[in-house]
Structures are given as structure tokens and as C-alpha cells.
Amino acid sequence: MPSWTFLLVSLSAFWWAFQAVRLVRAAGSLPRMAAMPRETRPAWPRLSIVIPARNEATHLADAVQTRLAEGYPQLELVIVDDRSDDDTGAIADRLAAGDPRLAVVHVDALPDGWLGKVHAMQQGLARASGEWVLFSDADIHLAPGTLERVVAWAEREGVDHVAALPSVTARATLEPVLAGFFRMLTTLLRLPAIADPRSDVAAGSGAFNLVRRSALDRSPGLEWLKMEIADDFALGVMLKRSGARQAMVVGGRFVTLEFYPSYRMLVRSLERTGANVSAPVVIAVIALLVALELGWLVGFTQPGPATWLALATYVVAAATQFGASRWLGVPRWPALLPGVAIIPLGWALVRSALLAWRRGGVVWRDTFYPTAVVRAGMRLGRRQPKMGSSRSS
């Protein structure tokens, strides 16, 4: 039996054991919206939902209706139509005409030095009047009572920023990718440390980033994030570095969305990440993850200790994937194929890096951004300015 076989299986076994431990810790520490009571109060703080939308005609009306019907007493919705060339703007205007709680901001041009989504968020924030602001993507659905539960819980716990993990549905062919993506997301990040003010671990969620306006005012602001592609995550990092109390919660049935309608759409969406890191680094990292996620398979090529270790690793991997899927409310049957998601996900990321290398940049929301501009605008890992210094530095 070649020594490299047992070594690779051992590394893969350690990797899956590491993920299993991370999952158990996260599942035992993260609050769940389902456990937050829906309170009755004589008065509620005003809450503004900011929805940046570009070419979202397919999803916008249904998703907005769930938020209007959500039941929060002091609710304001601000839809930002970001240079859409479909019926997004007309749908938003029609919805606003039928409900005074809804306002629409139309963005016709993108200023230099801004990413389209972050600029749309900034325009929506400028229009919003709430003490709390929820940044949420255009295709997110909220169940009745969601905001009352979360706002009451945040005020009771003294939390300034709540990021929610959504429950996601997908077509059957994409369910393994969906399940694997969320499992890796929740095990690679130390989720319990997000709520610890002594830790520098922070996070955000494009599906549900609820922020106390006063905490956002104490931060460098969205202008500092104007060229950050991972805007949702970077928002959480910026807020925590500014002293905001932060929490990650499990949304479950209260915050839902549909995964990409096709693998092609997923691949196209991930193209925007291609300029973040050089292609050789991306290829090396994906190769390592493939070895860790699927390395246990080589143990079945020859009988002996490696085979038994591979079998044990499969059991741990399947249990970890099943546990993560059950916890997050995503399909569970992909647990039969643990680790397989790294192949389509890895290919999409490698492809995005190679495209960015060939093009010299990335295209996002129909705007081209050179690699040098993207990397200069990245904020994750950079020191942020103190309040009172330039917000655009």
C-alpha cells in the first residue's frame, strides 16, 4: 500500500472531523429565529428595508409582497432600481403606488469608483428613515412576524447587527451544490465567535443584514465599502471593528430564498469574484480543498487500514453534511455524496479567476472593473479609518 494513500486519507479524515466539531459548536451556540418570541408592544422603532434590485422582474413582486405582509407595525421599504433594463422599475413603481410604506429610488447612472450594488445600497440608505435598517436582496421572502421577533430580540440582547442564515431551496440538480456550499460556509467560519466582542471574527449576510442606524453612523459607512465585492460580509466586518455588537442567527423558515435557477447562473454570478485573488492561488486552494473533501475516496482503491479509515471518514462526512443540512433547512439527501459539491463549486471559482486573468478584470451588473481597481477597493483585511478621518480612504 503506497504511503501517500494512507496519508491522504488521514488528512481527509482530520478535515471532516474538524468540520464536524465546528458544526456541533455552531449549532449549539447560534440563536434561532424560531426560538425568538413574537412580542406585543405599544410602540416599535421604525424599520427601513433597503432592497437593491437590478433586473429582478421575475422575483421582485412576490418577494416584496411577503415583506409588506410581514406585519411589522413601523415599516418602510425602499426599493432601489439599479439601472435595470427589464421591468424591475415599472414593477417597483406599481407596488409603490398601491402602498404608502413603499418608496422607489431609480438609479440611471453609476458614478465612477462605485460598485453598482453598494451604490444602490447607499442610495437606499439615504432615503431610509428607520432607526433600524435591513439590507436584503431582492429575492428574499420573510415569514409573518419575522421582524418583530428579531428587533425585539436584538434590543433585549443589546445587539446592533443581526445577520441571518437563510433557508434555501433549489432545483434537484443543484441541491448537492447548495448543501455543500452552506456546509462549508458554516464550518470554515468560527460562527460562535461572531457574538464575542473580544473576537475579531465577523460576518454578514446578503439575505438579511439588520443594522441599528446609530451603529452604522459610528462606522466609516457604505462609502468605505464602495468597491468591495463581498459587500455583505464586509459590512459585518466594518460594523464589528467599529464597536457594534454582532450576532449571527439561523433564519430557518422565517428568511427564505431560492438558490440559483441553474448551474450556469451560479457560474455567472461567481465571475465577479475572479479578480479578488490571482488565478494560481485560487487553483492551489481549490486543489487542496478537493484533496481534503474527497481524499478519503482513494482509501477504497486498496484493501487494508486505509480502506477502514476511508469508511469511517465517509460515515463522519455523511453525518456532518446531514447535520448541517438539517440545521440550516436545506436538502438532506446530498449527505449521501459528501464532498462532491467541491467539484462544481471549485470549477466555477477557477473559471472566474481565469476569466479575470484573461480579461484583466471582472464584469458585474454589466459594468467592467479592472483587476487593479477591484483589488485597490477591497476592504476585507484592511485597516479601516477612524471616525473623523476621510470615509473614502
Automatic annotation (TrEMBL):
CDD domains: CESA_like. This is Glycosyltransferase family 2 protein. Pfam families: Glycos_transf_2. Signal peptide: none annotated. Coiled coil: none annotated. Residues 48-216 form the Glycosyltransferase 2-like domain. The chain crosses the membrane at residues 277-299, 306-324, 336-357. Keywords: Membrane, Transmembrane, Transmembrane helix. InterPro entries: Glyco_trans_2-like, Nucleotide-diphossugar_trans.
